[in-house]
Amino acid sequence: MPEFYEMKVAGIALDPSNNAPIVILRDIDGTFILPIWIGIMEASAIAAALEGVVYSRPMTHDLFRSFVEHLGVVVEKIEVVDLKDNVFYALITVIKGDERLQIDARPSDAIAIALRTNSPIYVAEHVVKDAIRVDTAKPAAGKIMVGFEQDQEKLKEILEKMNPEDFGKFKA
Fold first, then answer.
1. Confidence (pTM)
2. Which of 29, 109, 141, 166 has the most crowded Cβ, counting Cβ within 10 A?
3. Could you give the number of structural domains in the chain?
């Protein structure tokens, strides 16, 4: 059985090279930062949840929350369970009575739902190890070490171009 790290949404940022939104996950211990590139609509949904924005009409993830509440279903957790060909995979685990179901989902949608249902977010250990990440557990002369797993130079370039303000607006 795979090991999982509990993660929190640290914020939403933009990739300075192409303005693509990135959701930034950080583990509870503050050891890993895991960026996941997502769509603009999902970034908007996550940012709205982080900021506590309530729309006059329900958005898609709010509608999902409403469905599960009305059906007596509990969102137990979301898990980012795999990474294949640079695509992340997630599961939403729901409980209805004695039954536990796992629903396939994009991580961005699962994260938006987790924020609306106050459900924990977990990432499989092998996903953290295989993904582009920043490992803050091994400082070198006060600098953050960038993982070598996929594209160290790309992530390094992105992080170097980011300002603290890039995270500020949507910081959890």
1. 0.77
2. 109
3. 1
The string of pLDDT tens digits covering residues 12-34 is 998 888 888 999 999 998 888 89
Structural domain harbouring 28: 4-168
| CATH (domain of 112) | 3.10.690.10
Predicted pLDDT of residue 54: 85
**Which residue carries 């939104």 as its tokens?**
21
Residue 137: CA atoms inside 13 Å, Cβ hemisphere, count?
11
What whole-number distance in Å separates Cα of residue 51 and Cα of residue 92? 23
CA distances from 160 to 16, 24, 52, 111 (A): 10, 15, 29, 26
- The structure tokens 């582009």 sit at 132
Distance between CA 77 and CA 93 in Å, rounded?
Answer: 5
